[in-house]
Every structure is written in structure tokens, then in C-alpha cells.
Write a structure and sequence with these properties.
Distance between the termini: 13 Å
CATH superfamily: Aldolase class I
CATH class: Alpha Beta
Strand content: 15-25%
Largest sheet: 8 strands, parallel, barrel
Number of helices: 11
Helix content: 40-55%
Function: Involved in the gluconeogenesis. Catalyzes stereospecifically the conversion of dihydroxyacetone phosphate (DHAP) to D-glyceraldehyde-3-phosphate (G3P).
Pathway: Carbohydrate degradation; glycolysis; D-glyceraldehyde 3-phosphate from glycerone phosphate: step 1/1; Carbohydrate metabolism; erythritol degradation; Carbohydrate biosynthesis; gluconeogenesis
Number of domains: 1
Organism: Gallaecimonas xiamenensis 3-C-1
Strand order of the largest sheet: 1-2-3-4-5-6-7-8
Structural class: alpha/beta
GO molecular function, one term: triose-phosphate isomerase activity
CATH topology: TIM Barrel
Protein name: Triosephosphate isomerase
Bound molecules: glyceraldehyde-3-phosphate
CATH architecture: Alpha-Beta Barrel
Order of helices and strands: EHEHEHEHHEHHEHHEHEH
Radius of gyration: 17 Å
Shape: globular
């Protein structure tokens, strides 16, 4: 039985004051629930503040990005080991915004995935197709390649102790989530791809859906067999809305 995971990706939002307000509100709401794992990924600069606030909470801490290097002359970068010191448990890799705006290709994403694991943290590999790729019937090809790049670098057991998030690019921030049935088809495909490498990892693997998840559509998505939670952007910035989502996973 896979424990559902609901993660908030705050992207480039927040201030010291808003981080404190949101986390205090979320901690109260999270205390009332069991049976779902909740995590938040603030901008890196707020990770220390979030660690202090979450010290006695069950909410896990995630990060939105790392550099592939562990140390050295890499101005402006942050390593996975450094985040581990601040209690970070999850790190997003391969988010479509980083693939598109920061030119992260499959190979670099795979190296980041490897670096997260080497630091003893859990990578959350984001995969998904653009609208054009969907229109051309290329969804499975695109996602297959994104998964294969990680297997090529990290081996058949790559997805042991990892998370995959299916985020169709066309659904992100659009208000138009994938239908539960469409999401399920892709999640099933992802699990089958992983099972072809290692059946045990596939069985344990949590596959999250991301893209315009809200309190009002979360439950229908979570009812699908292979949807094990959500990676939530905009709706994770509001405690009421985000708690509506993680409560739907119970
Ligand atoms: O990482 C989160 C996704 O990009 C989804 O964002 P969204 O919930 O605002 O559509």
C-alpha cells in the first residue's frame, strides 16, 4: 500500500512574513490528518526558516532545485548535501519550467537525480508532455525518454526510493487539469515502464499528478489506482485550498 504524498511547490513566491503565516496555518491543518504525507518546497532562501518552523511538525521539507556538483567553483549554486543539513527530504528535478527556461535536458536532469540520491535525499522526477507533443500523439514517447535517461544513468533500480510526478505542461497553471482517466492512463504507463526495469520499485513508487490541482478536483484524481498524490503549484500557496487537497487524499 503506497502512502499518498501531497507536495506544494511554491515556485518563486513568498516573503519571510508569508512563509511564516502559511506554515503556521498549514501545521494546524496538518495536525488533524493522518495517512497522507504532506511536503512543501519553498524557494531555497526560505529553507532554513521553514526548517525552524517545521521542527515539531509532520510536514516534510522539499527543495525546488539543486546543482549537480557537491562543491567547488559554481557561483550561485546549492548542493544536495547542503540542503540535507537543513532537513530537506525531497528535491524536485526536471520540472518543466526548468527544462524550458533553464535549458535542462534529459541528461542534466538524470545527473541531478543521481546527485539527490547520492546525498541521501529523495528525488521527485517531473515528467510530462507539451500541448504540441500531446496533439502529435507523442505523450508516451516523451515520457518514456525522460524515464529512460534516468535509468541509463542510475541503473535498473533508479526509482527505488524516488518519486515521479506526471505534470502535463499544458495543464500547469492553466486551470485545466488532465481528466482523472487521462492522468491514470499515463500513470499506468509510467509504472509499467519502471516495472520493466524492476517490478518491486514500480510497486512501491509513488506517482504524483501535477497541473492545476485544486481542492475541487483532487478527490477524483486520487481515486485513480495509479495516482498516489499530487504536486501542487498555485493552490499550495493558500492553506485552506492546500489542506482541501491533502484531505482529499485520505
Ligand atoms: O509543480 C507544480 C506544477 O507546476 C503545477 O502547478 P499548478 O498547480 O499551479 O498548475
Amino acid at each position: 500500500m503506497r502512502r499518498p504524498l501531497v507536495m506544494g511547490n511554491w515556485k518563486l513566491h513568498g516573503s519571510k512574513a508569508s512563509v511564516e503565516k502559511l506554515l503556521v496555518e498549514l501545521m494546524v491543518k496538518a495536525n488533524e490528518v493522518e495517512g497522507v504525507e504532506i511536503a512543501v518546497c519553498p524557494p531555497l532562501v526560505f529553507v532554513g526558516q521553514a526548517e525552524r518552523l517545521l521542527r515539531y511538525s509532520q510536514i516534510a521539507l522539499g527543495a525546488q532545485n539543486i546543482d549537480v556538483n557537491r562543491q567547488g567553483a559554481f557561483t550561485g549554486e546549492v548542493a544536495a548535501d547542503m540542503l540535507g543539513e537543513f532537513g530537506v527530504r525531497y528535491v524536485l528535478v526536471g520540472h518543466s519550467e526548468r527544462r524550458a527556461m533553464h535549458h535542462e535536458n534529459d541528461d542534466l536532469v538524470a545527473r541531478k537525480f543521481e546527485a539527490v540520491k547520492a546525498a541521501g535525499l529523495i528525488p521527485v522526477l517531473c515528467v510530462g508532455e507539451t500541448q504540441a507533443e500531446r496533439n502529435n500523439g507523442e505523450t508516451k514517447d516523451v515520457i518514456g525518454h525522460q524515464l529512460q535517461a534516468v535509468v541509463k544513468r542510475c541503473g535498473r533500480k533508479a526509482f527505488d526510493n524516488a518519486v515521479v510526478a506526471y505534470e502535463p505542461v499544458w495543464a500547469i497553471g492553466s486551470g485545466q487539469a488532465a481528466s482523472p482517466v487521462d492522468a491514470q492512463k499515463v500513470h499506468e504507463f509510467i509504472r509499467a515502464q519502471v516495472a520493466a526495469q524492476d517490478p518491486a520499485s514500480a510497486q512501491a513508487l509513488r506517482i504524483l499528478y501535477g497541473g492545476s490541482v485544486k481542492a475541487s478536483n483532487a478527490q477524483a484524481l486520487f481515486m485513480m489506482d495509479d495516482v498516489d498524490g499530487a504536486l501542487v503549484g498555485g493552490a499550495s500557496l493558500d492553506a485552506q485550498e492546500f489542506s482541501g487537497i491533502f484531505n482529499a487524499a485520505l
